[in-house]
Amino acid sequence: MPYTSGQSGSSTDLTASGHSGASSPSHSPSSSAHHPQTDGTGTPRKELYSYHAPWPVYSIAWSRRPGKDAFRLAVGSFTETATNKLQIVRLAGPDSEDPRRQQDLVATAEANHPYPATKVLWQPYRGGDGPDLLATTADTLRLWQARPTEDGASESLHFLQALNSTKTDISAPLTSFDWCETDPSLIVTSSVDTTCTVWNVETRQAKTQLIAHDREVFDVAFISGTSDIFASVGADGSVRMFDLRSLDHSSIIYETPTTDSHSAPPLLRLAANKVDTNYLACFHQDSAAVQILDVRVPGTPVAQLRGHGAGVNTVDWSPESSGHLCTGGDDSQVLVWDIRQRESHPGTSSMGRAKSAPVGLGSVRDPSLAYTAAGEVNQAVWSAAQSEWIAIAFGRCVQALKA
């Protein structure tokens, strides 16, 4: 696995044990009678899996279902046509694997998608063996269902419904959304028309809509552990927090500094810490830095991550550790950070599972681990069902990296 330590440059894997210099296991079909890609327990055997799509990739998301279906990804295309694609890809099995072994992951379902999906997510797992629900945003919010085929050898992807809060067929484009972990019936979307809308996916109706920013809203995220509080970022350069129980006001957590000659640069993406509800991560347009915010101390970032050599495109927190997050950018780098420490120990992985909070760190310039992709990284998402895996998207490629 081509990871390097953020300080020493030594080769390392991304395992929690922190052993450096680990080599990737060889891919021998005869080593597992159960599945050529997994060991006898169904656990993926390799440390890096790749999928080469027939079109440029933008949106990706891990399945939330635990067990054998955890190693699945929803993948959305990005083409300059009205009709795009939405696929489900998973580990190649004995029957579906590329006979030339050029694909570790294969598409098991595909559907047409109007316009490129700005985001795709699987519904948080609620237990049971029923079909999986997915959602996408583009010109509107769409719901999809993934279910096994009758013979059980593959799966199918079915469009369910487009949700629209307006009385006309035309709505403002949606930039992003988040699916509430605490109450999976709720989705919140962000739009270029300055609004955020909270949806009930069971009734297929809008629960509430509010003007969130002075300009376009670019991203939105529920705060972990609650179904009432969410945060958003937008073109006005602010991070705002809303409480559905009291929508008559919002809290401004952070505003981009401005000068007399320049307006505030937009904030493009937002990620809420999945373990500690006090922390958010965001970044500006065309910026190589990531801001870490403490909602208890609004106004100034408690840390800034400055390891990228070009603009950041994506950020996601670890599902198990409050101090770890990953970022990806135009410098083709995927960086894993431990923001509880100013410096990483040379030659070791710092992917421990401690849950202490990142307090008062200032600038963090050295990531704990780094991976160089073959192109500009558009997305990096951490699996909630398999917390040792991070998926990235660049060009026409999706890769799953062992964490």
TrEMBL record:
Key words, A-Z: Repeat, WD repeat
PROSITE patterns: WD_REPEATS_1 (PS00678), WD_REPEATS_2 (PS50082), WD_REPEATS_REGION (PS50294)
Nucleotide-binding keyword on record: no
Biased composition regions of type Low complexity, renumbered to the chain: 16-35
Region (Disordered): 1-47
Cleavable signal peptide: none
Listed InterPro entries: DCAF7-like, WD40/YVTN_repeat-like_dom_sf, WD40_repeat_CS, WD40_repeat_dom_sf, WD40_rpt
SMART domains linked to this entry: WD40
Protein name listed in UniProt: WD40-repeat-containing domain protein
Source organism: Piptocephalis cylindrospora
Lineage, top ranks: Eukaryota, Fungi, Fungi incertae sedis, Zoopagomycota, Zoopagomycotina
